[in-house]
């Protein structure tokens, strides 16, 4: 799964470096499609149609803006200064999948208070992810991972939604076990070497309730407050957790959980 992880990480890093004020969400989608085609990889999203989706997703990446936090369907929208953008990408390479997400503030917003609130949202999800990775060790329980996420998010003052969270990853994008963003330590599935999970803390500023947009996919806060979402795909090994989707910025990734650069 390392090849899929590297592809997802490199693509998200490229987007973080190149997305700017004026970038159209459809151009982001087109760039991801180009990279997938050139690499001979396969999108996990284009034909994805779970029970909660109104129709097949039909695009190559999730682009969630401001009060949208999950499953953002790319559409004809040009980013403006201060937008809070979350990018979520899952790709299959040679039959194996990796999944990751990153949130960023677009441009250099003039409203410093709003930007600081957004940075706090993003930072909380990144710290929650790092705590969860630290807990993702063979012999621990899935509840240890979930509890680590919930502890950071709740101490930061946010409410935690348990409807959507992390998941098992392998030959498919979404598999067992479900990884809630809060839980009780020492409960749940025992973590064994060979298990691969996507851990994905996300929060909304002032609520934990979501509504589905008219496009049948995009999930937004019920009160219009903004959200952030961070995710990595983690392999449980005898020597500790390994982050298969670690980017060059290493955000949310403990040093001990990095793959060798080769």
Automatic annotation (TrEMBL):
Binding site for a divalent metal cation 1: 88, 99, 231
Subunit architecture: Monomer.
Biological process according to GO: proteolysis
One GO MF term: initiator methionyl aminopeptidase activity
Entry note: cofactor: Binds 2 divalent metal cations per subunit. Has a high-affinity and a low affinity metal-binding site. The true nature of the physiological cofactor is under debate. The enzyme is active with cobalt, zinc, manganese or divalent iron ions. Most likely, methionine aminopeptidases function as mononuclear Fe(2+)-metalloproteases under physiological conditions, and the catalytically relevant metal-binding site has been assigned to the histidine-containing high-affinity site.
Keyword Hydrolase: yes
Cofactor(s) needed for function: Co(2+); Zn(2+); Mn(2+); Fe(2+)
Protein family (similarity comment): Belongs to the peptidase M24A family. Methionine aminopeptidase type 1 subfamily.
Residue sites binding substrate per the record: 71, 174
Record's catalysed reaction(s): Release of N-terminal amino acids, preferentially methionine, from peptides and arylamides
Protein name in UniProt: Methionine aminopeptidase
Binding residues for a divalent metal cation 2: 99, 167, 200, 231
Keywords: Aminopeptidase, Hydrolase, Metal-binding, Protease
Domain named Peptidase M24: residues: 1-238
Domain of life where this protein originates: Bacteria
Cellular compartments per GO CC: cytosol
Enzyme Commission number(s) of this protein: 3.4.11.18
Function comment: Removes the N-terminal methionine from nascent proteins. The N-terminal methionine is often cleaved when the second residue in the primary sequence is small and uncharged (Met-Ala-, Cys, Gly, Pro, Ser, Thr, or Val). Requires deformylation of the N(alpha)-formylated initiator methionine before it can be hydrolyzed.
Originating gene: map
């Amino acid at each position: 799964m390392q090849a899929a992880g590297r592809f997802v990480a490199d693509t998200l890093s490229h987007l973080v470096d190149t997305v700017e004020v004026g970038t159209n969400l459809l151009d982001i989608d087109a760039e991801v499609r180009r990279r997938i085609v050139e690499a001979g990889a396969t999108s996990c999203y284009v034909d994805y149609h779970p029970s909660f989706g109104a129709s097949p997703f039909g695009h190559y990446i999730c682009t969630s803006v401001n009060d949208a936090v999950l499953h953002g369907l790319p559409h004809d929208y040009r980013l403006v200064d201060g937008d809070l953008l979350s990018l979520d990408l899952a790709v299959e390479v040679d039959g194996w999948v990796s999944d990751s997400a990153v949130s960023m503030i677009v441009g250099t917003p003039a409203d410093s208070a709003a930007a600081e609130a957004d940075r706090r949202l993003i930072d909380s999800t990144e710290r929650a992810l790092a705590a969860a990775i630290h807990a993702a060790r063979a012999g621990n329980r899935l509840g240890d991972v979930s509890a680590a996420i919930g502890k950071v998010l709740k101490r930061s003052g946010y409410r935690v939604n348990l409807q959507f969270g992390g998941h098992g990853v392998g030959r498919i994008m979404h598999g067992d076990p479900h990884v809630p963003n809060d839980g009780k330590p020492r409960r749940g599935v025992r973590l064994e070497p060979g298990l691969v999970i996507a851990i994905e803390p996300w929060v909304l500023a002032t609520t934990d309730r979501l509504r589905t947009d008219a496009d049948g996919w995009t999930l937004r806060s019920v009160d219009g407050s903004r959200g952030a979402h961070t995710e990595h795909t983690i392999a449980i090994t005898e020597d500790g957790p390994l982050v298969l989707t670690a980017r060059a910025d290493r955000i949310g990734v403990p040093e001990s959980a990095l793959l060798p650069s080769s």
